[in-house]
Structure formats: structure tokens, C-alpha cells
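This week, look over our next protein:
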Amino acid sequence: MTVRIGFIGVGGIAEHHMGILKKVDDARITAVFDINQARSAEIADKYGALSFESAEQLMDSGEVDALFVCTPPFARTGIEEAAARKGIHLLVEKPLGLGMEDVRKKEQAIRESGIINSSGYCLRYQDIVAQAKEYLAGRKIDLVMSHRFGGMPDVRWWRMLEQSGGQLVEQSTHQLDLIRYLAGEFKEVQAIHVQRHIQQIDPEATAYDVGTVSFVLESGAIGNITSTCIANYGGRSGVEFYGHDFFVSIDGATLRIIDAQQDTTVKSEVDFYLEQDKAFVEAVRTGKQELLLCDYSEAADTLAVTLAANESAATRAAVSLTGGKENSVC
């Protein structure tokens, strides 16, 4: 079976997926839609697909078995629910949205439909992440330190908090998701988000450009995740886990494990986007949801933590969570 794949939103991340899917034997890109119709037509011509004038027209065309949703987080109205009703399988890029009430409704629709569903948390598919997860299983993590430092995407919506959610929601969410995946659920977050330089780039920008979040996990471990999008020099990202008898670091594509028996460094040998997209295509082809490492519900739980951090920054108070689910201000 060849899986026919459509795309809603054909910006940079979508085209990256398209390039990856060309390497997957059982996948064929058949349909695209973007609000920028010229771009949609260009991408359709490049990848041998049909270009449609609306998301609804694409989903009603009979040309797709599965759909990649790659629109910005503020432009997701009704897409996932419509796909679920029509039995179209979904890979939804992160972040899933900007409001948990809406995302939880989508989650319910997807779950009740029984469609195969995945999300854009591609770092889970790194071979070194699997090795770290195996090593950390059963070990007591006491401290987690994480960071994402880099530049600012050159799209205006990203600079608007009400459209992107800010760096933690839109970018550093990858590192926060790894913390959830490897160390367990968040119990409480307390954040500080500030503007230092961003308004010199765009005087109307509402997003922060420096942020830090302290947190407590359900396990009792504590930690911090710090982000900036103005680090044009020295960009890097990673997560570190400390216990009394071990240290584990995922620094980009490098895993390091130190304990009394070893000081081991391992370089990733896989393209995690390829592993993610292959797994999704195979899950659709075989009907095996269990092949996927991060379904829509898991991605919703990660979003809940990042939005709770935004709430904390706005209210200057700690926000509690239960099992990754949003709860109340402390």
C-alpha cells in the first residue's frame, strides 16, 4: 500500500518533510493547500501533487490517506476535527495550538475517530534519546537543566506572542518535551519572560526574547529550562539529567553518560526527521498506532506545560499542573 499524503501549510517545515518523504518508499505526496496560492501551486508542481484552494477541498478530494498539518499555531481552526471526521490520518506539527480548551476538543475528536495520529516532536526519534531513556529507566533523577539558545525565525507572526506563543511554546518545546519523555510529568512551573532586544527588530513585537522557567516534576526532581532567540553567536540546545550517582547529557546530537563504571560519549547516527516520518507512514500503512512515539495527546500535554509557563510569566506566580494537564495558579 502506498500512503497518499496531503499537506495543509507548505512553508519551510512542510517542505522539509516533503524532502524527507521522497526517501520513504511507501509514501507519495498527492495534495497541498496553502493560503498563499502561488506558493501552493509552486510546491505542487515541484512535488508532483495537486494544489487545492482550501483545506476543505483538499480533504474532500479523495486524494489523501494522511495529512501533515504544518500551519502556524494560530491557523488551525477546524482542520484536525474535519480530518478526524473523514478518517484521514494526521501528523500535526508542534505546537498544536495556543489554547488548551480548543486543543483538548481536537484531542477528543481524534481519539474517538480512531485515526492514526502523530505530532512533530521529532527529537524522540533520535537513537541517542532511546539510549538515554533506557539508561534512565528506574534511576532517581534529582535535577534537570535544559537550554535552547539561537536566533529568531524571520517571520513576523513568530514575534507576536498571540500568534506564536513565544519561544518556549514554539521552539524550546522540543527540549521540554524531552524532559517529559525522559524524566516524567511536570507538577509546577514558575517563569520569567522579558523583552531585551526584540523591539529594536520590531517595535510592535509582543513576544519575549529571553525566558527562564523553574519547575518541579511529579517525581520531586527540580529543574530549569532557559531560552533566548537573540543568541546569534553561541547557539546550542540540550538537556542534562543529574542523579547522585550519574550524569546524562543530550547536547544536540551527542549523548554523554557518566557514572562509576563509564564515561561514554555517543553520536547520533540517524536522521530523526526521517525516522519520524517513516514511522508515521508505516503506522498508517499497517494501522499500528504503537509504532509512534508521540501522539496528539502526548503533544497536548507538552503544550499544556508551555502554556502554563506563559501564564506564570504573565501573573508572576507559580502555576500547578497534574500529570501534564493544566490546573490552577498557586
Remarks:
- The mean pLDDT is 96.
